[in-house]
């Protein structure tokens, strides 16, 4: 029997998150020369900063975050699935989108590397479209930025 995947609200500094974030940083550093470790330097403990962990039973298998860019736009950061191809990334992204809607975001943006073709395809499959590079990614030819309109909070969304 397959263990169910559960998403839990957490914090990027939580002990359960560190091994996943370290694995992600090591992979990004090896593949693309930058590890993204500075993603949480401006992290705040409020409802606009969202960090989710995905768990199969007691094993933490994925994570992702949203932080504010503006009142209406959140930025997806540090998406990672320990076991690719098992729906972990899809579940984390769906959880982030639902949490972002509930927190009042109208849109999510994100950046990945142009060379990270699998990530670009993943986001496009989930409704994200290329947008102009924003913020610190302006003028960086190796950056691919994506955005997605979230729409209204469903009437059945639990509080």
TrEMBL record:
MF terms per GO, please? acyltransferase activity, transferring groups other than amino-acyl groups
Task: Give the top-rank taxon of the lineage listed in the UniProt record for this protein.
Answer: Bacteria
Q: Which CDD domains match?
A: NAT_SF
Q: Which UniProt keywords apply?
A: Acyltransferase, Transferase
Give start and end of each N-acetyltransferase domain: 1-151
Quote the Pfam families the UniProt record gives: Acetyltransf_1
Which InterPro entries does this entry report, sorted A to Z? Acyl_CoA_acyltransferase (IPR016181), Bact_Acetyltransf (IPR050832), GNAT_dom (IPR000182)
Name the PANTHER family on file: AMINOALKYLPHOSPHONATE N-ACETYLTRANSFERASE-RELATED (PTHR43877:SF2), AMINOALKYLPHOSPHONATE N-ACETYLTRANSFERASE-RELATED-RELATED (PTHR43877)
In Swiss-Prot or TrEMBL terms, this protein is called: GNAT family N-acetyltransferase
């Amino acid at each position: 029997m397959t263990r169910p995947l559960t998403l839990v609200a957490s914090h990027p500094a939580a002990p359960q998150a560190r091994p996943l974030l370290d694995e992600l940083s090591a992979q990004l550093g090896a593949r693309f020369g930058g590890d993204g470790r500075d993603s949480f330097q401006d992290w705040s403990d409020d409802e606009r900063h969202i960090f989710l962990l995905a768990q199969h039973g007691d094993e933490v298998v994925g994570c992702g975050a949203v932080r504010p860019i503006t009142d209406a736009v959140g930025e997806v950061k540090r998406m990672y699935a320990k076991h690719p191809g098992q729906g972990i990334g899809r579940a984390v992204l769906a959880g982030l989108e639902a949490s972002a809607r509930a927190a009042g975001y109208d849109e999510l943006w994100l950046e990945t590397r142009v060379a990270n073709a699998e990530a670009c395809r993943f986001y496009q499959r989930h409704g994200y479209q290329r947008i102009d590079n924003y913020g610190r990614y302006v003028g960086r030819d190796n950056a691919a930025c994506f955005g997605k309109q979230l729409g209204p909070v469903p009437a059945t969304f639990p509080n």
